[in-house]
Amino acid sequence: MEKTILIWYNSLSLMLQIQYGSNLISLGLVIVDMQNGFVSKDGSYDKLGMNIENYQQIIPNIKRLISFCRTEKIPIFYTEAIREPSGIDLLLNIHNILPRAREERLQNKKIPICMRDTWDAHIIDDIKPAPEDHVILKRRDSAFQDTELRVWLQSIHVNTLIFCGIDTSICVETSLRDAFNLGYDVILVSDATASGSKKHYETTIERVRDYYGVVIKIDDLKKMIQTLDDLSKDEMQSNEEENESISQFLEKHNLINVRKEKK
Questions:
Q1: pLDDT for res 108
Q2: What is the 3-state secondary structure (H, E, C) of 64-92?
Q3: Integer angstrom CA distances of residue 40 from 46, 51, 56, 62
Q4: How many CB atoms lie within 10 A of CB 124?
Q5: What is the DSSP letter of 52?
Q6: What are the strands of the beta sheet with 160-166, ordered from one edge?
Q7: How many angstroms separate the Cα of 228 from the Cα of each of 165, 202, 234, 261?
Q8: Residue 251 has what pLDDT?
Q9: What's the average model confidence in pLDDT over 103-114?
Q10: What's the number of CA atoms in the CB half-sphere (13 Å) around residue 241?
């Protein structure tokens, strides 16, 4: 099996792309909606009396994930769900049918949620973006809906996305599904995402595992990427050892073997 390791350079960073055989894996991290309005004390969700405890509990793991991605030269993309002060982008202006569960959040004018250019809309300080990171402003659930994300990913040849953030069953899942349907391979970090509802969280975890990609914890993600890196550098002792390592990963995550060999 022919193996090479490729480095793609852009004006912002060096990015490692791992190639073994005909397979190319180029990773990007997407951190969904970790904003003051949803996560912080005295943010709009907190003021509305909504459950933010689950969201707060994943902050340390997201910090670990970010640190790992920086070390591995994996580009990082943050999303910020925002609204215009004028209210022009409210769902109420478009939809005739909306669940009542959205009503309080949509119509409570005394507690606006994540208004553009406010503290409420900004990423929490614990995981504040670095100058080399990328921030996507979105007005709907998906990170891809009417945003620059796809163009940015294409420009640096990212084809595999790691997802974390909130809410697991809403914006994270919607973004992940869109990514899959656009042709990206997807990974959901289960201990770096949270939902206000345990039932909704568990449903998304099961759905992603069964139909879309890999569901994995941070420590296992690190091992997975290290294994891929070893493969690309030909650090496995033999083809048998290499094939065994890959087969174990595919079996563990119930994945189809779609490896391609150069002829």
A1: 62
A2: HHHHHHHHCCCCEEEEEECECCCCCCCHH
A3: 7, 11, 8, 15
A4: 18
A5: -
A6: 134-138, 76-81, 27-32, 160-166, 185-194, 214-216
A7: 25, 28, 10, 15
A8: 79
A9: 68
A10: 9
Q: In angstroms, rounded to a whole number, what is the distance separating the alpha carbons of residues 146 and 138? A: 7
What is the model's pTM?
A: 0.85
Q: Is 89 exposed, middle or buried (0-12, 13-18, 19+ CB in 10 A)?
A: middle
Q: What is the mean pLDDT of residues 157-181?
A: 97
Q: How many residues does the chain have?
A: 263
The predicted-structure confidence for 74-108, as pLDDT tens digits, reads as follows: 999 999 999 877 776 776 767 777 776 665 555 56
Task: Name the residue ranges covered by the structural domains of the chain.
Answer: 10-217
Q: Is the pLDDT score of 59 beyond 90? A: yes
Which residue, chain included where needed, has tokens 């180029």? 26
Predicted confidence at residue 106, as pLDDT, reads 55
Do residues 212 and 184 touch, judged by C-beta distance below 8 A?
no
Residue that is written with structure tokens 């907190």 in the block: 46
Helices (H) and strands (E) in the chain, counts: 10, 9
Q: Which CATH architecture has domain 10-217?
A: 3-Layer(aba) Sandwich (3.40)
What are the beta bridge partners of residue 237? none
Contacts of 111 (CB under 8 A, 6+ apart): 44, 47, 48
Q: Outline where DSSP puts E strands in the chain.
A: 3-9, 14-20, 23-25, 27-32, 76-81, 134-138, 160-166, 185-194, 214-216
pLDDT tens-digit map of 203-249? 999 999 999 999 999 999 998 888 777 766 665 555 676 677 777 77
